[in-house]
Amino acid sequence: MDGKQVLQFGRIEGGAYTLDFKRPFSASQAFAVALASITQRLK
Q1: What pTM, to 2 d.p., does this model score?
Q2: How far is residue 17's CA from residue 20's CA, in Å, rounded to a whole number?
Q3: Each residue's pLDDT tens digit, 1-29
Q4: Structural domain includes residue 33
Q5: Residue span of the structural domain in which 19 resides
Q6: How many domains does the chain have?
């Protein structure tokens, strides 16, 4: 990796979230990481 950000996920307001990603992540991989992040916060 070149040290650049390739995935960004967070809540922007209320129940709205944003997910930005680029290579080497695919859409399904980025979504899986975001889903895992939310699941960890619910525990």
Answers
A1: 0.75
A2: 10
A3: 567 889 999 999 988 999 999 999 999 99
A4: yes
A5: 7-42
A6: 1
pLDDT of the residue at 4: 87
- In angstroms, what CA-CA distances link 9 with 14, 40? 15, 14
Specify if 2 maps to a domain. no
Q: Please state the three-class secondary structure of the chain as a single string.
A: CCCCCCEEEEEEECCEEEEEECCCCCHHHHHHHHHHHHHHHHC
Kindly report the backbone phi and psi dihedral angles of residue 6, in degrees, each rounded to the nearest multiple of 5, phi listed first: -120, -10
Vertex 1 angle, CA 23 and 30, to 5°: 35
